[in-house]
# Entry
Amino acid sequence: MEARSATLGLIPGLSRQFPVAKTIEMFRKTCINHYFELEAARVYDTGIMKIPIYLSEGSEQVPAAISTVSSNFLIFAQHRCHSYYLSFGGDMRKLIDELLHRETGCARGMGGSASIHDPSIGMYGHSGLMGDQVPLAVGAALGSARPVLAVMGDASAEEDYVFGAIAYAATKKLPVLIVCEDNDLSILTHVATRRSWGIDEVARSLNLPSIDIADDPWLIAHYVGSFLGKLPALINIRTCRHRWHAGTGKDGEPEWNRLELMKEELRNLGLESEAGEIETQARQTVHRIWQEQLQKPFKR
Amino acid sequence: MARTVAETIQAITRRHLSENRGLLFGQCVSAVGWIGGTVPEMTEEQGIVELSMADVAGAGIAVGAALVGRRPIYVIRYQGFMWYNAAPLLNYAAKSKEIWGVPCPLLVRSLALEGGIGPVASASHHGMVTRMPGMSVIAPMTPGEWTQAWEWFMSHDDPLYVSEHRRSFSIDYEMESVLNPRADITLLAIGASRLNALEAMKLLAAERITCDLIHLLWLKPFEVTDRILESLQKTGLGLVIDSDFEIAGTSRSIAYELMHAASVPVYALGLEDRTAGFAPHLDNPTPPPAKIVRQVKTLITSELKKVP
# Structure
């Protein structure tokens, strides 16, 4: 396995080859995701949500990048997937309502933070068994012949049935893109303590196109685009989890802050003022929607 | 000539794959006998999906196909393999509609068999399914009953667990409940135990003990019918017999329900609380006729029977 770093697999100059409109779209989605999670954390800390919460702060740009390349996936994710829901067009108000235990939530309060879904965007809920979304995704690809996105974490990659599912997708050449958000942590246990292999290596051994990269959104978009015609494929993406596994706490600064690195890259691209406007607008929009939803009665 | 259960399943499956874009998933489907002659000899292109030997992943793949509307049939060759397969079936397919409002209609054909096949492959295991929410359970033993299961599946958008028994595959007749005006006890039998109960009734009749026998088809939802209540109130004593384990199992659960509904004692008789071995003397089969006879005689001579 390669060592973790913010530059793993980076391709110099990639952001300049990317259409500016796509870059803007990707950044807008990232900001929406980011400020949604900040608002969620703020509200959570008031104590009104009586559920565990899984925040994606630190990896908001991953689904933003994937969805900017293609929004035509059926989506099977797991916990820590608020940003997938939002990036692929899920209704933010329904997600807020879900976190506030409401009947009007995207899963009528049954899903909480961990098991969100939206049939209108082809996103299926997660049962709570880590990694079981991967075989489901493979079956959905087999049954529908549509491209399917399966998202898991580095811990889920170790579930035995994940290997069986990836291997079956390889055997039957099913159109599944498997994304592993590798934040190096299963709660607080590091990958190196748990295994000596990379899931990208496993995928390659099954003759799947596969890559192990940092969480740079242009890099992610590049590989999603190049793998789309070669599915099944797998991308292991090294991310930083800014908060605890569950809850809003922090154990210090993350190894790197991709949002800040992204803004730096936008400055290099001459998009600083657009980026500033987008970020401000995203922050205000998300805050306003949260406030509107909070005004409605909720079950304590 | 009447169709057997195996022929009925095969014909229905062929039609489902040919006409409904249905799929059938399983391991070693095309192995010797095509699963007791229950699977039509069709190709993968026609809808027979040979899975790898990864049981948990395989069940998940079938569930994924159900989510996208292919109404798959998922075959588990030995019910004991449900201990692998339960995760996606009971934790996803069974819950999907309740949690997300997203139907996940798949039909699980889970095959029980018995007789010198050891600790995993023997016995029925529908009890692990009935205790979890979201999955209806049926245990058909006749062609008509299997057809009823199928028709229910195709007219609902829920998953269905079909607890099959290989002893049913050659059956080409229907089984009616047996009701006697002067019955001493009501037997309520599930799955393969229905065949043993019929044998036991003959042995008991020779000793002037008369039984009512009511075949239990739907295990969940379980309906306490007027026929069951009338019989129990007539005999004042019931015995639920099952080919699954007795302790914390379906037989005891149903006995409990019936006891409360009928206000008469209802007992349970299922597999013993021990692991089956391969050697014949270490087997743990569906209660054989002689054991049912012993149990009935013990019960009707005990003080516990409620005099009607």
About this structure: The CA atoms of residues 29 and 262 of chain B lie 45 Å apart. Chain B has twelve helices and eleven strands. Chain B touches chain A through 32 residues (CB under 8 Å). The domain at 185-301 of chain B is CATH 3.40.50.920 (Rossmann fold).
